[in-house]
């Protein structure tokens, strides 16, 4: 997909007709060569922003995939880093990465809606995974994150601004989401992945209802839109004592 090392059209078709878990198991060996991997520019910007708030003790990468975000945790967490994901295939690739983290890192298979941890983390991050959760699932998701954080612990993730209406990105995300809705209406098992519903106006109230205090800051590396608003924000939600 877009590179010689990425999956071909047939592979993508098989993955798209699978469940989320099975689809990512199949995609895992080539995932880092697709546009679905979080760009290094985003990871680096978040890492810089978090470094001024740290250091932290124990960190969790929620829906870690092959572990691109684990490097952010290793840079800002002194004690340990843990990645959790539902796909055994993605975790297997992550464990084999040269920068997998060694003895400081744990790779755990688990469901983000039923996390297998107690309140032991000081920082939870997540990159590019929220499209796999329907809006009605966000209260349960945020409650799980709240439950695994220590009091005062933080949940941080980048949140790009919505694509301007009429832009190329606007039509691309609209078309992708429409195609996924049609696919899920006629094919089972469903593959939940939608780009457009996860927006600040929905996310912030749900975080606050889950017991978080929410702080927003611009990621200056990505500039601003013509109206002056940031192209990408860092959302930092602190668990209230």
Characteristic terms for this protein:
241 residues, alpha/beta, Rossmann fold, 2 domains, seven-stranded mixed beta sheet, 34% helix, 22% strand
Structure description:
The protein has 241 residues and is an alpha/beta fold. It has 2 domains: 1-36, no CATH class; 39-162 and 199-239, Rossmann fold (3-Layer(aba) Sandwich). It is 34% helix and 22% strand. It has a 7-stranded mixed β-sheet with strand order 3-2-1-4-5-7-6, sandwiched between helices. Helix 6 links the parallel strand 4 (121-125) and strand 5. Helix 1 (9-16) packs antiparallel against helix 2 and helix 3 (40-51) packs parallel to helix 4. The longest helix is centred in the last third of the chain and has 19 residues, at 168-186. The mean pLDDT is 89.
Question: Helices, strands, pairings?
Answer:
Layout: H1 9-16, H2 20-27, H3 40-51, E1 56-62, H4 70-76, E2 77-85, H5 88-95, E3 105-109, E4 121-125, H6 138-148, E5 149-160, H7 168-186, H8 200-209, E6 212-218, E7 232-239
Helix pairs in contact: 1-2, 3-4, 6-8
What is this entry, summarized?
Residues 60-153 form the Methyltransferase domain. By secondary structure, this protein is α/β, with parallel strands linked by helices. The chain has eight helices and seven strands; from the N terminus they run αααβαβαββαβααββ.
């Amino acid at each position: 997909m877009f590179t010689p090392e990425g999956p071909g059209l047939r592979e993508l078709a098989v993955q798209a007709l699978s469940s989320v878990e099975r689809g990512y198991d199949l995609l895992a060996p080539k995932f880092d060569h697709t546009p679905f991997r979080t760009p290094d520019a985003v990871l680096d910007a978040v890492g810089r922003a978090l470094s001024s708030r740290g250091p932290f003790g124990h960190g969790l990468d929620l829906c870690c995939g092959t572990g691109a975000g684990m490097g952010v945790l290793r840079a800002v967490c002194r004690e340990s880093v843990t990645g959790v994901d539902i796909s055994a295939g993605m975790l297997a690739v992550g464990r084999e990465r040269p920068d997998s983290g060694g003895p400081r890192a744990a790779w755990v298979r688990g469901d983000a809606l039923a996390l297998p941890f107690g309140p032991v983390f000081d920082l939870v991050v997540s990159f590019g995974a929220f499209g796999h959760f329907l809006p009605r699932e966000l209260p349960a998701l945020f409650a799980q994150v709240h439950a695994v954080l220590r009091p005062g612990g933080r949940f941080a993730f980048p949140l790009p601004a919505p694509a301007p209406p009429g832009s190329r990105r606007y039509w691309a995300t609209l078309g992708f989401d429409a195609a996924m809705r049609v696919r899920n209406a006629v094919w089972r098992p469903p593959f939940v992945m939608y780009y457009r519903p996860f927006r600040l106006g929905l996310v912030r109230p749900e975080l606050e209802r889950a017991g978080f205090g929410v702080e927003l800051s611009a990621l200056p590396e990505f500039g601003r839109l013509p109206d002056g608003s940031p192209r990408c924000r860092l959302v930092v939600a602190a668990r209230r004592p």
